[in-house]
Amino acid sequence: MRALVVRAVDAPLRVEEIELPAPGPDEVRVSVRAAGVCHSDLSMVNGTLGPPYPLVLGHEAAGVVLEVGHAVTRVAPGAHVVLNWAPPCRDCWYCGRGEPWLCERTGSPSAPRGRTPTGEPLHVTLGLGALAEQVVVPQEAVIGVPAELPFEAAALLGCAVLTGVGAVRRTAKVAPGESVAVIGLGGVGLSVVSAARAAGADPVLAVDISPAKAALAATAGATDFLLADETLNRAVRERTGGRGVDHALECVGRATTIRAAWRATRRGGQVTVVGMGARDDIVGLAALDIFHSARTLRSSVYGSSDPDRDVPELARAVLDGTLDLAHLITDRTTLDGAPEAFARMARGEGARTVVLP
Ligand code: APR
Ligand code: ZN
Fold this sequence. Notes:
There is one protein chain. The chain is of the alpha/beta class. It has helices at 39-45, 93-96, 151-171, 187-198, 213-220, 232-238, 255-264, 287-293, 307-319, 338-346, and strands spanning 2-6, 14-17, 27-36, 55-56, 61-68, 80-83, 114-115, 121-124, 134-138, 142-144, 180-183, 204-208, 224-227, 245-250, 265-273, 296-299, 329-333, 352-355. The strands form three sheets. Strands 3, 5, 6, 9, 10, 17 and 18 form a seven-stranded mixed β-sheet that branches. The protein has a six-stranded parallel β-sheet with strand order 13-12-11-14-15-16, sandwiched between helices. Helix 3 (151-171) packs across helix 9 (307-319). Zinc ion binds next to loops.
């Protein structure tokens, strides 16, 4: 079967023929029907994150179960599923206190999962490697969804939407009438914008370095679009009685944008870091400012969500029309077109590209 593989930092992406093991007793084989191209995949390529190579890309996907190991109880062949890149163990201290997104045992397994036809071991992104025709994953990494749910929407539920909606509802707990700034308008940020609007936030200030994002921001429900330049601070204050926003949500994953989110927030307000940044990108904040501004700085890992509970809930919302994801998908392509989708994402174009392998 075919998969999108990167072999070194910034190496060209290639669709390669790969082999996956048969599912173990506790594993399932899934035919991938739709997979989103997420910035975290780009971070696996461009050196922001340091994954082992060669690596099969992709971690935001949905498909159909083809084959299950004999101990699998969660799903049967034919089930439609969303892939979960952080399946919790349900047994550790964090899982026990109802915070499965902080599970101590989850995380990218370092053991390679697939191999090339010549026997070379292949790693898979976040335990999935979903930019591929198929994946073989532990049963805990699949979540059943209704067969009526379109695969494209289902795929986005597995990362951008769970992360974005969860950041607003569960991490930041945005309340009606609160002011919100969202910095970075990719698949994650645009899903934060619509969730903030749905939560009754007003204004919702959508911020990006790319002016082309203004139209997407408006469709997602932003009240204003602001350019991320030296005018940002003043523009935010003009719209918030001179104070700054109640909530700033950073959806880029860089120290500069975390600082911009910090500055955009009012005294006593909350900064939620949604973007996943690099190990060596240091955020400098003045000690006096930290004290005087009384702001809260926190992060949102996987939307502070329990995917087993929240993905089916979001799937129902898509089906009953209360959660519209159509505006998040700006391009569709095949596996062979996926390298170009990475290039578009690196240039800050569009929202999500969905790959239909
Ligand atoms: N200021 C404002 N916006 C910026 C800046 C900046 N300095 N730099 C980049 N951006 C914008 C880009 O123009 C783009 O619109 O941030 C957006 C990022 O969008 P995507 O590349 O589509 O990223 P996305 O998949 O949404 O992920 C965002 O969340 O899950 C994490 O690892 C992921 O850190 C990444 C973040
Ligand atoms: Zn992602």
